């Protein structure tokens, strides 16, 4: 989140779109009702399903799954054509006035530079026009035909109400209400927040879904404001922490990059990732990349990291393509991988195309599962007729199960969606032989070191050099690990108090630059529990530690105009007063600068402004465009029939044959969470199993009647990848939508189906789902695929 949970109470309009906060984030949702009750806020929910969030909304609008970009580009068109834009903000704080290269173009669904053969773009033209000093050219009048503003206007021109409604299935009357509610926040005294999660990420253009919303927020001037922002509601309790720590396939802790094989030396890598300013006088914060990177290498390799050996850069793995879990499963399927360590994920239930994954795991020589429960992944080799059909005797995989502790049985920090690092203490000792994950991983490292010492082997250096100077090398304490993440002076051992102290010369070590300040010489800042809120605006500087630098609202310079005056005096976060900056939050800019010199709030961008035109950042293009899901219930793209879905998808060999057509599989299908369960693990919890004992498939009354299916009937749901049997839940919540001259029915299946838990035996919905996913992130299209449904013979 750019903002944080409590801050939602400051919103005037709350849009829940691409998420279901009432159900999946029920505690945080309390701040939505707070905004409604005490701030007269309006709640808008846009979702294929009338879900529990919708039941509390002022207005609910249905949408066909996978069409949010069309919906939001239509909103952008509406904002522009009705002049409901915060123009002062847009001119000063976005790249609206920047000139784009003359060779940038968009035609019939494709941007300039498309290479048909590679199914990829040459992104050269997706850039600004530069002057002789290498700075972007701008036209502050917004009149130049090549400025972002005019190109954007032109790009969204096609998305009028009828076109949008024809793609999304959202009735025009509903759409008008949503557009007006969003547009009402273009004034300086009104702000909207968008809350989203998987309804946007689980798509073959997930990153572009989110980006389109960020563009809406920029046009309205809603980023950097109390009650505004771009607010991702994260999944697992500590998934924010996991991503901060480099969980993503191509990132390292603090979102610095895993090196690619195109960067053979440290100098190459730093040159590729240390941006030059694109406008004069920019903070360009990533200019500090070398300090963050070298400090991270010092944390990895300790005394073995020296200027002479590029601080151990050679020992870092280099990628040639994205090796996410999907890629690994595909490699296992092809027999290209011997072993796999699965830690804290129930892969066989949660990854898409389950039948393929069963074969993938069966090809391994060994599988190690670190989990505090007996998961279906650890028992994937057990034949369970109907639910997990495998030929156990032919499986060669040896499975090792290492029981772990769970969060309540260890101390440490958990980072919530609002970036708060909150320390917690151990509640109980772990049962039986369970060990902490860190203890297990350390044990494996110690054994590897021993093996290398005794027997030698290829590439011993990284294992030998890894910095493991903990009191107990077999079991590093959370305290020692946290202090290392904060960072310290290598020579004196002093904890740094901020990332501004980090150096690129090897004199500091830091495990995650964003966490600098969380454990300083003053001690653990994460266990602070002063909930004092002096301004009444939900800013509690003494509660826990919010990265970066205990800042609660990111980009807060944008809450003021260029002269440092808050857009809205009721929403002051920082302000220029009596020749200096004052405020209730840590400034997200150099507060030594006067308002004019600091008027570039988006300090992580080399041009200091928010991007309506995203340059080369995303694979699909610098502007979002509507593409159909890979499996589309209308089988065409009404905007450009030749480019139906995203043209830059990653197709593993043979996957094209696993994609269904609307002729065979006529219904759209989506999957989602229920409050009563948390993913798969609470299916092992008796009370949760009692409250929701069984899974089901939801369908609307019209479709059920056409198919002769009654509520509670056993039905067979099939996709190109496989089929499941489950019970029908006939409902008004999912309604048929009129799309491109046809009726689209959507089915919905909860994602908690499990066959060896305390709930009734069920098929996992991931038998049906496709592994096709977002080209930037690899996240599968769990929320939009095609199925057929028929009444099953009992
Ligand atoms: N009780 C409970 N809480 C949980 C979880 C749980 O399993 N149970 N899981 C946790 C995890 S790991 C995560 S990641 C989060 C997930 O949090 P959410 O994303 O909120 O949860 P989901 O139920 O997956 O999906 C949200 C909504 O997206 C809608 N949707 C589907 N397709 C589209 C679309 O194309 N457009 C739009 N606008 N909406 C769409 C679905 O109908 C659903 O209502 O929740 C976390 N919290
Ligand atoms: N069709 C469909 N598929 C989906 C989704 C969907 O909406 N639809 N959602 C996707 C999303 S957002 C997510 S996050 C995934 C969730 O998928 P998973 O992460 O696979 O689901 P969980 O049930 O949360 O599994 C986590 C496992 O970690 C174990 N665990 C808990 N604490 C610890 C610990 O401290 N250490 C270790 N080693 N293990 C621990 C739990 O016992 C559990 O077995 O599913 C994805 N798959
Ligand atoms: Mo998740």
Automatic annotation (TrEMBL):
- List the cofactors: [4Fe-4S] cluster
Q: Which GO terms describe its molecular function?
A: 4 iron, 4 sulfur cluster binding; electron transfer activity; formate dehydrogenase (cytochrome-c-553) activity; formate dehydrogenase (NAD+) activity; molybdenum ion binding; molybdopterin cofactor binding
Q: Does the keyword Calcium apply?
A: no
Entry's transmembrane regions: none
> PROSITE patterns attached here?
MOLYBDOPTERIN_PROK_3
* Principal cellular location given in the protein's record: other
Q: Does the keyword 4Fe-4S apply?
A: yes
Among the entry's GO cellular component annotations, what is one? cell envelope
Q: Quote the PANTHER family the UniProt record gives.
A: FORMATE DEHYDROGENASE-O MAJOR SUBUNIT, TUNGSTEN-CONTAINING FORMYLMETHANOFURAN DEHYDROGENASE 2 SUBUNIT B
Q: Which family does it belong to?
A: Belongs to the prokaryotic molybdopterin-containing oxidoreductase family.
The protein's name is Formate dehydrogenase
UniProt source species = Shewanella mangrovi
